[in-house]
């Protein structure tokens, strides 16, 4: 459905030239969303896919085992969209205080993303509302170290930014001027809190993501935080028990269409085209996540059966194997702390796991060794290849 311009342009003067900055109208869209039978059917399918995803988390013996690494996969994907070269293995090695195979700034950026998400989830679990304060706190974590740490972490911007181009005059899009950011974000916060009217959770996530990206309230990190907000909102609204839906891979795969739709919304108000794209992203992503969980569960069960053939030591090997489902790249020292087993028993267990082809020693060294649960990492790595 085509509407009028979804906001207004204002003339700004910055870096020695004039440009047109866009201030979006508050949500929800006016006139309201036109729910054609096709769009309604697609959104219903998306909700059904989310229900399956939420249900499959119950199958996990310990959701935390899966979530620890899955969150890191999302961090890698979301950061890759911004141009980092870090892989899942790089991040896991970095967290073990080992030198990754990419520039340190890249992997620090990914690590910050994990910290931002974990902070947001912990605050929600503690009863804190999804609010501008929480968004600012998460941004502070996102830019706390490394690249971007000089871009006012946790503070709404006080200067003009732009998207694409070398300056506002030749930019693809110029967000609101800095003096309008607080008002725009305040209106978005009201929308998140169902003012002026209640909005269903999935629709709210779809609309709020576009609005956040349009406002672009920070000097850096807007794309990553905007993608994070989708999952955070679905968890806050109890659509998902655990943070298991991440749309970064879909947005990365369909990047040109994604940006095209954002511009179409601003210029023509075609929210329905965006909602169809968003619903498709949810359907495909949730289905892939369910498949990933099922493949990881099948792999773990198959490996457990192989471990049972080892005789008396099998119980210790099972404990080490279980720990590596949480950290698929681990050192003997970390495994000792995690499992409570002696370093000797951990070493013997790793030797047996390597003999079965379940884990692989990664360094080729005799000291400071690291082991990878290779097939587990391969399943999680799907889509993160640069």
How would you briefly describe this protein structure?
The chain is built from 15 helices and 5 strands. The protein is mostly helical and 386 residues long. It folds into 2 domains: 7-291, Fido-like domain (Fic-like fold, Orthogonal Bundle); 304-381, Winged helix-like DNA-binding domain superfamily/Winged helix DNA-binding domain (Arc Repressor Mutant, subunit A, Orthogonal Bundle).
List SSEs in N-to-C order. EEHHHHHHHHHHHHEHHEEH
Q: Tell me what portion of residues adopts beta-strand conformation.
A: 5-15%
CATH superfamily of the largest domain: Fido-like domain
The CATH architecture of the largest domain can be named as: Orthogonal Bundle
Mean pLDDT: 90
CATH class of the largest domain: Mainly Alpha
The helicity comes to 55-70%
Structural class estimated from helices and strands: mainly alpha
Please report the number of helical segments: 15
Largest beta sheet: what is the strand line-up? 3-5-4
Distance between the termini: 36 Å
Summed up, the domain count is: 2
Provide the low-confidence segments as ranges. Answer: none
What's the Cα radius of gyration? 23 Å
Major sheet size, sense and barrel closure: 3 strands, antiparallel
CATH topology of the largest domain: Fic-like fold
Question: Outline, from the CA principal axes?
Answer: globular
Count of β-strands: 5
